[in-house]
Amino acid sequence: CHELMDAMAFVALGSISYHSGKLGVVWAAPGQPVEDVVNMANIKASTFAVEHSTGPLADELEVSWFDKNNGYKRRSIRLLAPGVTVPRDTARLAPAGIDTEADAVRLGRWTMAQNVYGRKAVTWEMDLEHMAFHRLSVIAMSHDLTRWGHGGRVKAAVNAAGVVTLTLDAEVPASPTRFVALRLPTEASYRIFGVTAFTGTASQLALVGLWPAG
């Protein structure tokens, strides 16, 4: 039964999940907000790793399905990776549950995009108390080892005459591009604020612009 439900959900780029405590489904959709930021403050020490896929990947994908609009006869379609005119390696996909050309094309593009853009795997460990997201959530990763920025915790925030100053638990270096992402109470996604220029390193950041009303 679980395999059947997974096949049904897979047609909509989803999968079965119990993240709410009940049988449910999660799925990928455009325009999803960033639900959490993972950084050095909530990653267990010595567990962060990035594994790059350096081997050759298929640059053409053949998707086959039983077309319900054509008497459930088997059909297939070939999708090329961007910029490829003469493919050197073809992968084949015959997913259960797909019965229309539109679904086959969407799933094929989804899979090809993973081939083209998903060339690295980022893994880490964290305590349950920090997991405010579930499978297929959109998260932001910040880690100074890979130069994806710097992350930490806010120890204090002071609003003096309209200028908000944040005190961090660690110093951060100056950068030509100065932004900080903050999650505000009752808001589903993070807000991005500009930071006043400084030199060297600092543990206090003065935000640019007005603090949101309310």
Give structural notes.
By secondary structure, this protein is mainly beta. The protein is built from 2 helices and 14 strands, in the order H-E-E-E-E-E-E-E-H-E-E-E-E-E-E-E. Strand 1 and strand 2 form a beta hairpin. The model has no long low-confidence stretch (mean pLDDT 87).
Structure summarized in a few sentences:
The protein has 214 residues and is mainly beta.
Secondary-structure-derived class: mainly beta
Strand order of the largest sheet: 10-11-14-13-12
Query: Treating each run of at least 4 consecutive H or I residues as one helix, how many helices?
Result: 2
Please tell me the overall pLDDT. Answer: 87
Q: Give the termini distance in whole angstroms.
A: 48 Å
Q: Please state the CA-atom Rg, rounded to the nearest Å.
A: 23 Å
Instruction: Tell me the overall shape.
Output: elongated
Number of strands: 14
β-strand amount: 35-45%
Main pleated sheet: 5 strands, antiparallel
The H/E string reads HEEEEEEEHEEEEEEE
Poorly predicted regions: none
Task: State the helicity in percent bands.
Answer: 10-25%
SSE layout and pairings?
Elements: H1 2-10, E1 14-17, E2 24-27, E3 34-38, E4 49-52, E5 60-67, E6 73-80, E7 90-93, H2 101-117, E8 120-123, E9 138-141, E10 154-160, E11 163-173, E12 179-182, E13 191-195, E14 201-208
Parallel strand pairs: 3-9, 5-7
Antiparallel strand pairs: 1-2, 4-8, 5-6, 10-11, 11-14, 12-13, 13-14
